[in-house]
Amino acid sequence: MVTVQGQAVLMDFGLAQLAHGGSKLTKEGTSLGTSAYMSPEQTSGEKLDLRTDVWALGVVLYEMATGQVPFQGHYEQAILYSILHESPEPVTAVRTGVPPELERIVNKCLAKRAGERYQTVSDLLADLSALKRGTESGVGTRPSSGSKDARPSIAVLPFENRSRGDEDEYFSDGISEDITSALGKVERLRVALRSRAFQFKGKRPTHREVGAVLNVGHVLEGSVRRSGNRVRINVELIAIEEGYQVWSERYDRVMQDIFEIQDEISQAIVEKLKVKLVGDEKQLLAKRYTENLQAYNLCLRGRYYWYKRTPEAIQKARGFYQQALAEDPDYALAHSGLADYYTLLGFYGVLPPKEAGPRAEAAATKALEIDADLAAAHASMGAIHSFYQWDWKGAERAFRRAIDLDPSYTVGHL
User: Fold this and answer.
1) Which of 102, 137, 259, 366 is 20 to 30 A away from residue 342, measured at CA?
2) What spatial distance separates the first Cα and last Cα of the chain, rounded to whole Å?
3) Mean pLDDT within 50-76
4) Is the pTM of this model over 0.90?
């Protein structure tokens, strides 16, 4: 706290311990503390380390810059839910004149996953000091929005379906989208949105045309052929400016290896583009949402038909999502897909909103209970906040959280 005389005073360290008897209240597995300043792992009673303090300091920095705490609610459980599942209103939206670099620093402190925060306070201090020097000298510390992003960039073009029938189109599209989503979680790599890359589906543009339209330096293109229990995937990574092949590979495996193939492709791209993974990005790159191959196939089908947005296709999507959940009831992506299905039914007037809204919210809530870091589920909840509850701030927080988790997820931006 700072007094009116400008003197800094330490008021409280938040120690929870009985005054007499010495029985400690703060221990692993509990979530004691001042709710608005508690980290996600603290609210969940998980093991804590110094990165929990980085989170709390981020809350204080946010409060200093805006005059309000980032996570709010009328009661404690609402605050804890906001900490776990929602993104705070951007600092620059609450208070004008705040340097964008300060917003970036605060956002990094408030990353839901500890591995994505500052790993030491020294690193945080270095960024704050650089911001201070830049502010005093009148020179910004980060590129302006109009300057070129120095990060390596890539677009994953829709893979060509070389199977015998069009019924396998969902599979080649799904592989392309899953690789896009995996790469989108890497902070030091810029990935074109799925919707922008898919505008070239069925076309044969030159690599330079793709680079010019999508503003990327590399493209990944490939093909998929399925036959019985086997799958063949060919991929090629192209450097657009130089016009040469950086890397290519052919995977001829059984279908049960499809998850490993996607992991290997994503890892190879990161290595070839010399992108350094930070925090828990290596685990995120290889993250799987189900180990059930049948459930995975069914969910891909559901997503494929949901994107078509016709009444017949949407009904097909629901059937595939429900079949996927019958195979794996803990498949968060399928629950999120079902939430999107009900949201669209109410939005288009097929179901009364009073019926569609609660069903959509139940499915999205279930998805978040299974995986609180699923971008699709946060986007689903954002649509529910928007269409059914008219909770514009809640919707924005949910959509921003989806984009933070997966910047390449088109629906979040939409």
Assistant:
1) 259
2) 42
3) 91
4) no
